[in-house]
Design brief:
Radius of gyration: 16 Å
Structural class: mainly alpha
Helix content: over 70%
Largest sheet: none
Distance between the termini: 17 Å
Shape: rod-shaped
Number of strands: 0
Number of helices: 2
């Protein structure tokens, strides 16, 4: 898997995590927030993290196969 793809997934995971954390912090403030939006951001963040973990595991497995072969 190209490293550009992994870098892109890392950036998307970081972006999703940061958006979720910022909105969660906003919920403690005075501005109105939506529980549905918070759940949506949390879900998007978790999905991005899962895609990254899956891609990294595939990369690691491919590297391991190359070492064996």
């Amino acid at each position: 898997m190209p490293t550009d793809h992994l870098d892109d997934l890392r950036a998307k995971a970081r972006y999703g995590r940061e958006r979720y954390q910022l909105y969660k912090a906003k919920a403690y403030g005075q501005q109105p927030t939506s529980p549905a939006r918070l759940r949506e951001l949390q879900r998007a963040s978790e999905q991005a993290e899962e895609r990254l973990r899956f891609a990294e595991a595939r990369e690691q497995a491919a590297d391991h196969e190359q070492e064996r072969g």
